[in-house]
Every structure is written in C-alpha cells, then in structure tokens.
Amino acid sequence: MAPSTQFEVSQPPSDAISAVIFAPDNTNRLLVSSWDRNVYLYEIAEGTEDATLINKFEHRAPVLDVCFGANGNEAYTASLDCSVKRIDLATGEQTVLSTHEKPVRCVVYSPQHSMLISASWDHTLHVHNTSAPASTPITISLPGKPHALAASPSKVVVAMTARLVHIYDLPTLATALSSADPASANITPWQQRESSLKFLTRAVACMPNDAGYATSSIEGRVAVEWFEDTAESQARKYAFKCHRQTAPEEEGGGDVVYPVNALTFHPVYGTFASGGGDGTVALWDAEAKRRMRQYQKFPDSVAALAFSNNGKYLAIGVCRGFETDMEDFNSEGRTKVFIRELGETEAKGKGPK
Amino acid sequence: MGKKKRGHPDVEELLARPWCYYCERDFEDLKLLISHQKAKHFKCDRCGKRLNTAGGLSVHMNQVHKESLDKVENALPNRQGLDIEIFGMEGVPDDIVQQHNQRIITNFYTAQAERHAATGNPPPGQAGGQGPAKKIKIETPEELKKRLADHRAKVAAIKANGGVLPVPVVAPKAQPASVSPVTGQSPAQGASPLPPPQPGFPYPPPVGVPGTFPPPGQPGVVGAYPPVYPPPGATPTPPGAPGGPGFNLPARPTGGALPQRPPYYNNYNGGAVPPPGAYPGGASTVDELVSGAARQGGGAQGDEIDQLIRAAEQGSKPPARAGEDSAGGEKKGKSKDKNMRMVYGDSEVSPEEKMALLPRYAVSAA
C-alpha cells in the first residue's frame, strides 16, 4: 500500500471556511478563504506533516471565494463587500477588479483564456480579461441568483436558484472580451439546462477532461452530467444520494439529509470527491458510478475541498455547517483544515465495468 | 391458549427445546442448535471450516489435512466419541435423551418449588376459587411426585411379578382404564407404533373422533385413543387432567377440548411436537412423558441424516432470505416516504446568504 497520511493545519482560520484551492503550478501551496475576513496562504512543508501559514490577507468583509490566477503568486477573491479583488501573494497588494451591486459569491479563473469570471447575488457575471486588468469587464445578466460556479478548459457552468444551470462557452467569451466594444457584446449561454437536482444547488465541479460536470444540492444528492448535447450523452447523466445518515428510531427514524457542500475532481484520474454537512468526504468514480472510498468522519461539516494540481494532496476545509434556523452561527474554534496525502492509486478509478 | 407465565416456561416448553448432545446446552430452535454444533463441535481447527457432523469433520481432517480426528471439541468428557453421528437432535441415544429430560424436569420442579416458596404464591391450580376455567391446570409437583411414586411402585410390582402386570394397583384417580394396557406394552421407548416425526412434515391428526369413540376401559383399542397427557410442548392445561377436580373419563369426548385439537396441532406442524397419536394410551407418568419426549429426537435413523441436513438447511435458508427481503422492502419504503430531515431545508436562499445577514459578518465601514 502506498502511504496515505492526513494531517491538520496548525494555524487554521478563526471562522467558517468558504473555499480552499491549490496553486496551479505548485503542489504544496494552497489558499483558504474564510468568513473571518481573511485569505490564508499555506505551504505544505515537504517531508513534514504540516502546512505553514505563509501569509494572510485581510479583507473588509468575509471572503466567499478564492481562486488562483495564472500562477501561484496571484489570487482572486470574492467578497461580501461586493468587490472582486486581485491579490499579489508575494507583495500582499490588493487591487479591486470590479464591484458588483451585491456580494460576490464565486470567482473562477480560466488559465486557458486568461479570464476571471465572478458571479454575484446581483444576478450578474463579470468576465474580466486578466491580461488587461484596466479593461472593463463584460457583464452578463443571469435569470437567477448564482450559487456555484465552475470552469472546465472550455466551459463555465453557473448554477443558480430555481434550479437554473447556464453553461457558457469560454472561447466565445474570450472573443467577445477581445472585441472592440466588449460592453455591448450580446452574450448568450451556450446551453441552458434545468438542474437534475430538485433542491438548491450547493456546488459545481467540472471534469478536467472537459467532458462534463457534477453538481450537488442541499438535499444530500450529487448529479453527474455531460456537456455534449446528444441524446446518448444526456442519457448517461445520473444522480445519486449521499451524505445522509439514518436517524435513530427514537427520533422518528428516517434519514437525516446533509447538504453536499463541496465537489472537486481529481486532476489526473477524473474521479471526484464530495464533502457534506455530515462531516464525511467520499471519493467517487464517475465512470463506474461507484463510491471508491469514504474517509473517516471529520469533526464538523465539510465546507470545501480541493485536490492539488497533481492530485497528490486533498485539502479539506472543515467548519461548523450552517443549518436551518441557526441564528447564533459561529464556527470559532471549530474550523480546521486537513490535508490528506493520497496514496498512488487512492483516487484512481477502476474504469467502467 | 392459556396465559404465559412470564419468565417461567412450562416444563413442556423446556422439554421441547432442542439441546446439544455434546455440551448439554439448550437452544431456542433447531437452527440455532445446528449452527452451535457447527461452530463449537464440528469446526475444523486447522482451517475453520464448519462441517455438519463429527463424521464429516473426521473425513475432512483426513482428506484435507491428513490428520485424524480423535475426539469432538468442546464436548463433555463422556460425550467426545466419534462413534455417534449427531446432527442437531438427530442421533442422540435414547438413554441420553431420557437422562437429559429427567434432569430438565427435576430442575424445573425444583426451581418452581423454590419460586413458590420464595414468592409465597400458591402453586397453579390451587389459587382458590377462580372459576372453572382455572381448574384445569397442570399437576402440582406434589401430585406429580405422588404419581411418580405410584408408578415406581407399579413398576416394582411388575418386576416383582416377573414382568407381568398385576391387577391394577394404581389409585382409581389415576385413570386405571388407560394406564393398564399401556404399562403392558411399555416401557418400550422408541418403539412407537407410528412413524417417527419428520421435520416439517404435518403430523397425522388425532385419531380419536367423538362419534367413533370407544367406550373407555376397553383394552386393545387404546392405540387409537388420544392421549390423556399432551406431549411436551402441547397445551399446558389438558382438559380433564388426572388429579384435576371433576376428572371424568367418559365425559371427555363431549368436553369440547378434544375435537378442537387438530387445529391446535396444526399450528405446530413445523415444530418438534410429536403427533398426538404417538403415545398410545397416553403417558400417565413422568417416565412415559420422558420417553415420549425422547422419541422426538431419537426417532430418525442415521441413514436419513443427509436428507435431514438438506431439509434443515433448506428450512433454515428461506426464512433468512425472507428477512432480508422484508428489510430491503422496509428500506425502500423508508426512502420513498418523506420521512427525512434536511439539515438545511431552504431551497431558495443559500446558507451563505443567511450567514451574510448575520450581524457578525456585517461589512466593516473601514
């Protein structure tokens, strides 16, 4: 058995985690954004079982999402103060890229097109050309409030309220962005879909091979779909239940259903991990439609997940999960970041049966 | 059926329990006994394979491990032999069965007497003026012991008489009519005139029909006579039990209890209850009760053992599968019904939006 170890980051954020992500060019570097208004930059010390806090970048408001830019020294953040920011991780310099009318929920960077897309609760997407930071972003209005965003090499998937899913074609966006008058460009979605899940979408993740994506909902369910709009491909899509627990009989039995907060695909094997409010992380083989493994329960809800660029590490952001009617929500002291070093074939699927 | 005495099974229930020849442990049902034997006595200590019989284990040891089995594991010192082929309750020698049953009965009555002494409750049947229904009760230990003593005396008398039955010696109370012919052909344990009970095979209905009932006291037809005593496991309150108040033999056919028996026994078709007709003339003594119980287990022949194993295995598998099915069905039903609780149930507003509204996350002015 190849070794697989797991350790806890010694200086975790002080409040709930909104996102974790690994650098595109550095396996050991990761960012964690938190509701405590900070973005944390960690580096896993090679050979040891710890990740040291390199720096933290304070914001005016809780940070709802973070992503790396073109390299491991550049990051973009989405904040509750409605701004999309670029952070130079080396100098700590923060520049505001654009300002939405409402808090910004997600940011995603497309390295293939040097584009940053931000989604805000003001029902818009902003598409920024990061190679020309001063340029005005394209604003795309959405029919619903976006809740999750993910990019594949050629597509970006936006999941919204009312089970709306829009898929935009990145090359089209890039063309529009480089046109003479980006602001007037009329951008239409490449595809408009209805979510396969009946409940509010919680997370979206795209397959690294550009074939499709997975979505998850607050109702303990994950759906896997394919981009290709042919009958065969659409017939392949499926959804399954997960992150549920059987309630004890004395509480009336039935299932306690947890939201699936996080999804992330393995960059090499194309398998994916899901993290739920039940504090578990499961590895799934999308092709074989099988659960490959389920890791030992974490002390709290799993809020965020990320594989490193080579799939060696899996970062798991654990904090108290927001549940219905939680007016006193507070994740202080309960926030942890775990890093799992995967064995050679731990995340390798067996392929379709 | 009569009210169950909580925690204190009847002696018939105790006698009906299957037990292990090798270690004298008793079990709820035959299936458990068989799995016990496979796990404790017929398990190969080399590879853990569980065989069905000691002979099977011996052959396995010989062929697979090239070793010879000299004794049965975990068995009582005098029961380690390989010469007896035991499977469940099959193959247990009659004398052992009798010993076992005698022990059970002794223990039962000792325990019962102790209970009565401890609680101060009167023995059943002597509760005093609780209506006619209460009158028909099983015998008290005193009555049983008395009858046992009677029987002993009788047997002694037979022996003293050179094996020939003397003139009835038993008190008239103890149904002389049916006892005498029985003692003539008894104690021939295991020599039941009826075929041994087959597992899972419906028992023949009682032969006694009220209309064709012979006049009591006629020897020779007693074989067709329903037992006065129920076999072990049968009703604890036999109508017109000897010693009971108002015992009247000729009254029995019209007593109503007899014609009702067939449905009663039907309930036990799968169980180890011997056919009512298996005890001609009725077992009037404890010894005969014991020997009757012995027939339960001792009836089957050794060469039928394979068949029995197969039958038992078949018998034990379907219920298990049915259990799984029902469990699966239940599970399905559970997921179908809306009996689930979502930890976060708002399908319009995301948790983040709710969190954003909390004062602690308000955007600072700076």
From TrEMBL, chain A:
It holds the Pfam family WD40. It comes from the Eukaryota. WD repeats lie at residues 97-127, 260-294. Coiled coil: none annotated. Keywords: Repeat, WD repeat. This is WD40 repeat-like protein.
TrEMBL record, chain B:
Coiled coil: none annotated. GO terms for cellular component: nucleus. Keywords: Metal-binding, Nucleus, Zinc, Zinc-finger. Pfam families: zf-C2H2. The keyword Lyase does not apply. It is found in: Nucleus. Residues 193-205, 231-242 have a biased composition (Pro residues). Residues 322-340 have a biased composition (Basic and acidic residues). Residues 176-192 have a biased composition (Low complexity). The keyword Lipid metabolism does not apply. Residues 13-72 form the BED-type domain. It comes from Neurospora tetrasperma (strain FGSC 2508 / ATCC MYA-4615 / P0657). It comes from the Eukaryota. Residues 176-205, 231-260, 310-366 are annotated as: Disordered. This is C2H2-type domain-containing protein. Residues 42-65 form the C2H2-type domain. One of its GO terms (molecular function) is DNA binding. The lineage of its organism: Eukaryota, Fungi, Dikarya, Ascomycota, Pezizomycotina.
